[in-house]
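hey so u asked for the seq, here:
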Amino acid sequence: MNQFEVTVNGTTLKLTAEDVVMMSTAMMDAMRTPREKTFQKGTTGNIYARLLNDQGGSAQRFSKHPPAGDVETDC
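ran it, C-alpha cells below
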C-alpha cells in the first residue's frame, strides 16, 4: 500500500493512495453540491469536503466525460 505524507499550512497528513482518490471524489462531490459537506470513507479515516467559495452557481463544473458535440478537423 502506497502512503503519502502531505503538508498543508504546517499540518502534515499521512494518506494512502486510496485516501487521495477518496479526497478527490469528496471534492468533486462538493463541486456538484455547493455549501453542502460531502463524505467519503478513506482507509485512514473519514474524509469530508465542502465548497466554500461558490459565487451564486458560477463555480466551474468538472466532468470525467467530454461534452457531446461535433469535432471539426481541417484535412
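Residues 17-32 form the longest helix (16 residues). Strands lie at 3-8, 11-16, 38-41, 46-49.
lmk if thats what u needed
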